[in-house]
Model the fold of this input.
Amino acid sequence: QVQLVESGGGLVQAGGSLRLSCATSGRTLSTYAVGWFRQAPEKGREFVAAIGWSALMSYYTDSVKGRFTISRDNARNTVYLQMNSLQLEDTAVYYCSAAQKAIATSRHYTEAGWYDSWGQGTQVTVSS
Done:
């Protein structure tokens, strides 16, 4: 497991942008797949985006395709989630997660239970 720290959340108007960061301390993130999930009040945790350790593979939930971009800088042990054209329904606590598994299918990336490590979350609030 790795310790993950999210940052970059905040309050933004609808249509605006935010960039979330997920970083580790003390251990490299370069060999881990990383996923972003979010949880809105009174709702379950929802998959948002994920990226493979090599960055060759990335996945998005349909509602964020074309608006969010996941990327990674392995030299900085950081994964980013660039969020553009934010909508009211994007309001949630955003969590990053990491997994280091021998087998990784596209389905695995979208399942919260597949990930071993989780950050504490960062709040994103989109206002009208």
Q: What stands out?
A: The chain has one helix and eleven strands.
